[in-house]
Design goal:
single chain, 359 residues, alpha+beta, 7-stranded mixed sheet, 6-stranded mixed sheet
Length: 359
């Protein structure tokens, strides 16, 4: 069969070879805090009632992590820019991100234009988020970017096979726990006939999670972004160590994040004469949880007294924002994960017992 499973490809490379391949693709970034104040400072200047409500909301978010992924569609040259109006879209996306209030935001196709608008945003870059490339900017024509409310425990770039783009990996500690989750913002090779390259790229990302967990310092991982998977056979490329959050929680729903029957940008990207583009529906964007419940690594993490479970997932940024104008040619995804940390729970219970004994 022409379309082999990812296991066949990995079997051709020994563990030692894969470890060497992963090591040469991985580079650690400086963890520079771009945000001038932590998220909690947003309560300054508010009334006591508003501050109390905000504290209540933050308490409800303990032991949970919300993650958004969105391909923002890189700005183009004239005449395409007349159609997609990138600066208008970017201004909308940035304000929308504030409203979404997610713990981690993963973006793809970020250009210098988008990054400069982000850094000038009155809320995002100065109060809400730490930004993966705040100090360096985005060097590629359209790269990956990550924003996190929690400071990055560590930050990495991982070069994909035969591409100049890097996967951005940020390790963040979940509030109320001692659990560290690595969130990876990825953008795999596009085009239908590039399935073999996507297979190689997914294998490399799996190798990163498998062999570099201790070095990166995470307990669990979420790989998300524009994975560009366009054929049903490509589902085989997702290793059993990963759990696809959409199919786990909503197995009977298609989950299309590229849908030209709804989003006119899906047609515009192909050109007005491309009649085939009018009915394209793909689930290009994914969220993959590592390790899955069927993975051997899952048992190891249970021994370490931590577990991450997806609670919900939905399609977002899927409404028109003006006449023939959309946030992007892609729709986004938003998911919430519950984090169970037995060690922290046991410590809290012991402290409570000790306190009661003193009383």
């Amino acid at each position: 069969r022409r379309h082999n499973s990812i296991a066949l490809m990995m079997s051709a490379m020994s563990d030692e070879q894969m470890q060497r391949d992963v090591a040469k693709r991985l580079r650690q970034l400086d963890v520079g805090r771009v945000a001038t104040a932590p998220f909690a400072s947003a309560s300054r200047g508010k009334t006591a009632a508003a501050a109390a409500e905000e504290s209540k909301q933050q308490a409800e978010k303990q032991n949970k992590l919300s993650v958004i992924t969105l391909n923002v569609l890189h700005n183009l040259l004239w005449p395409w820019e007349v159609v997609i109006r990138s600066r208008t879209r970017y201004a909308y996306i940035l304000d929308w991100m504030v409203e979404q209030d997610a713990d981690v935001v993963c973006l793809q196709e970020v250009t210098k234009t988008f990054w400069e608008m982000l850094m000038k945003h009155p809320t995002l870059s100065t109060r809400l988020y730490h930004i993966s490339h705040g100090a360096q900017g985005v060097k590629s024509k359209h790269g990956c970017l990550m924003l996190s409310k929690q400071p990055f425990a560590s930050l990495w770039e991982f070069k994909l096979p035969q591409m100049s783009r890097q996967v951005v990996v940020g390790c963040v500690k979940v509030p109320g726990t001692s659990v560290v989750i690595a969130v990876a913002s990825a953008h795999l090779k596009a085009h239908k006939n590039s399935y073999d390259m996507r297979r190689r790229q997914l294998a490399a990302v799996h190798g990163l999670m498998r062999f570099k967990q201790q070095e990166l310092g995470f307990d669990h991982a979420i790989v998300t972004g524009d994975l560009n998977m366009q054929g049903a056979f490509e589902e085989e490329y997702v290793h059993a160590d990963f759990a696809d959050v959409w199919t786990t929680l909503r197995p009977n729903e298609p989950g299309y994040t590229w849908d030209s029957t709804i989003n006119s940008f899906g047609i515009a990207m192909w050109g007005p004469l491309a009649l085939h583009a009018r009915n394209i529906q793909w689930r290009l964007d994914r969220m993959l949880l590592y390790p899955s419940s069927s993975s051997s690594s899952h048992d190891d993490n249970n021994k370490n007294n931590s577990e991450v479970r997806p609670l919900d997932i939905e399609i977002v940024a899927n409404e028109s924002i003006g006449l023939a104008l959309w946030p992007s040619d892609h729709f986004g995804l938003r998911a919430t994960f519950a984090v169970h940390d037995k060690a922290s729970a046991a410590a809290a219970a012991a402290a409570s017992t000790k306190s009661n004994e003193k009383e």
